[in-house]
Specification:
85 residues, alpha+beta, 4-stranded antiparallel beta sheet
């Protein structure tokens, strides 16, 4: 099975990512904000052989305008945001 390195997420997938951010109590490491804009997902299996086959790093941007380092990401499994519910 071929897996694309970068996955462009649709609106539903981005909504699921935000649900996971909330469920995991993920916050911005710089300012502590819980509000993020969701970007693309990077498949981790090809970069790190120790990663599970279904792990992705999903890009997040902190929406706090005062945040000095707004770029971060959350590691998620495929079923947490790509698969249909």
């Amino acid at each position: 099975m071929k897996v694309d390195d970068i996955r462009i997420l649709n609106g539903e997938q981005k909504r699921r990512v935000l649900e996971q951010v909330e469920r995991k109590h993920f916050t911005c490491g710089n300012c502590g904000s819980e509000d993020f804009q969701v970007g693309d997902a990077l498949y981790l299996g090809f970069l790190f052989r120790s990663e599970q086959d279904d792990h992705y790093m999903v890009g997040l941007t902190c929406e706090n305008p005062g945040c000095e380092t707004p770029r971060t990401g959350i590691r998620l499994r495929e079923y947490e945001f790509l698969d249909e519910a």
